[in-house]
From TrEMBL:
InterPro entries xref list: DsrC-like_C, DsrC-like_dom_sf, DsrC-like_N, DsrC/TusE
Protein name per the record: Sulfurtransferase
Pfam family, one: DsrC
SUPFAM superfamilies hit by this protein: DsrC, the gamma subunit of dissimilatory sulfite reductase (SSF69721)
Amino acid sequence: MASTEIYRYLIINQQHYRLDPEGYLIDIKEWTSEVAEALAKEEGITLTAEHWEILHVLRDFYARYEMAPAMRPLVKAVAQSLGPKKGRSIHLMHLFPGSPAKVAARLAGLPKPTHCL
């Protein structure tokens, strides 16, 4: 049976990165800082040092638990890694408007968090 999945591609320096229909990287091993920057640009976000801190927390969380965290576990992980001031929903919403867990996971090259609409 042939697959009917529709993919789109992110192209950076003639390299093609396959994305799922919602824009998440298919192969997380292909993630690079350039991929993150390009995905952030699509979201209208310019990555700062604060964004990168969160992206690294997310990637560490994924390496440990093999899943991208939904909002509550993300807040907890950030608070444990970066302190209570940064581990607040309002801080994450400022950095990653809309749905911080989904947007940050996408930029970190991770799958869409479970339990996120």
